[in-house]
Amino acid sequence: MDKATDTRLCEIRSYVDGTRIRSKDQSSLPTSKDLLALGEFTRQDLYGAILLAFFYGRAKGYRVAKGLPLTLQHESVSSEDTEILRLAKSLDEVQLTAVLVTAQELAAGTDPVAALAAGNIVLVSAGYPPAPVYIPEDG
Predict the structure, then answer these.
(1) Residue-wise pLDDT tens for the chain (139 aa)?
(2) Using an 8 Å Cβ cutoff, are 107 and 117 in contact?
(3) Rounded to an integer, what distance in angstroms lies between the CA atom of residue 109 and that of residue 79?
(4) Would you say the pTM of this structure is higher than 0.70?
């Protein structure tokens, strides 16, 4: 990553952190279905997916400010999504990217071992030791 990009990302993170968004209400965060759908959309239109994510976040912020329901009409935030988001906050950017790559591969129907390998590639490329992958013996 070049210095200008790194600087801009630091400014964006600082802006978000400086806004002091309250994290008590987890329902304003994206669900795992949201993240997987946006991840899949990036394969077709990266910039469209990024813009949609911004607009989706903006709409959620507006709904929070107006006291409107945050979830889509046919869904609610599951306890699994809340746990996924809690765990995601403990990961650094590279680790989260590896998790999302693995989830995206699984959602696309990739063999689980190959999906884990894709996540490991992200980790190793950034200098992390690879996570062990257990491959059962055929017997």
Answers:
(1) 778 878 887 787 787 777 776 655 556 667 777 878 888 888 888 888 888 888 888 888 887 778 877 666 555 666 766 676 677 667 787 887 888 888 888 878 888 888 888 888 888 888 888 666 666 676 5
(2) no
(3) 24
(4) no
What would the DSSP string read from start to end of the chain?
A: --HHHHHHHHHHHHHHHHHT---S-GGGSPPHHHHHHHHHHHHH-HHHHHHHHHHHHHHHHHHHHHT---S-TT----HHHHHHHHHHHTS-HHHHHHHHHHHHHHHTT--HHHHHHHHHHHHHHTTPPPPP---PPP-
